Amino acid sequence: MSKVVDNPAQKRFELPIDGSDGEIAAAYYRVEDGGLVLVHTEVPYQFSGEGLGSQLARGVFDEVRARGGKVILRCSFMGSFYARHPEYSDIVSG
């Protein structure tokens, strides 16, 4: 299983997709008032339904928690993930 990594130059968290030709799932963000605003999540269509979006979301939330940061959810996918995983309430604001 791949690990989620931050790519600040592209302003996105990336999850390399095992067994693909270098494809990634990505969660795009912007930095605002010291927090990360999650604005969009993308999983390549051919990998839809395989749980990669949830794996990406969990990796993003865990990374932000490890940094002691906060996220603001402006992405509908991240919002619905959080609704199913309220254990991340300590890092979600707004």
Automatic annotation (TrEMBL):
Keywords: Acyltransferase, Transferase. Its EC number is 2.3.1.-. It is an enzyme of class 2 (transferase). One of its GO terms (molecular function) is acyltransferase activity. Residues 5-93 form the N-acetyltransferase domain. Signal peptide: none annotated. It comes from the Bacteria. InterPro entries: Acyl_CoA_acyltransferase, Gcn5-rel_NAT, GNAT_YJDJ. This is GNAT family N-acetyltransferase. It comes from Halodurantibacterium flavum.
